[in-house]
Amino acid sequence: MHAAVREIEKTQIKRKGLPEFRVGDTVRVSLRIVEGKTERVQDFEGVVIARKGGGVREMFTVRRVSYGIGMERTFPLHSPRITKLKLVRSGQVRRAKLYYLRDLRGKKARIREKRLAPGFEALLDQPGDEAPEPAGETVEAAKAE
Hints:
The protein has three helices and five strands. By secondary structure, the chain is of the alpha+beta class. It has a five-stranded antiparallel β-sheet with strand order 4-3-2-1-5, with no helix packed on it.
């Protein structure tokens, strides 16, 4: 893509702080819906089965099964209609697109949950600090000698 187009797209991306999510993760998308003169927020929770594009044009597809009917919605990642995007749980998959879930029913359509080893959850909950200074001589001190 041309460098000028990339620079213009960077100015168009206004949303910062979106959670990092991948294909296989379960997300809850809060979408602002306008019906006549009234507005309301509707949640759509499901499994991310695809991510496409990049930059301003990035899209993701979410699938859920409601009352035995599979529903899929595709959202632009940087849409102003998305009020909130929350990562519910992380899934462990080995594919970039999960279109095969359309043909599966029941327990076969489940996705394995990504779990951390015991003790790592506590590390993730703590606020991150700066990297500690290395002990011993620095490179400049070694050169000075």
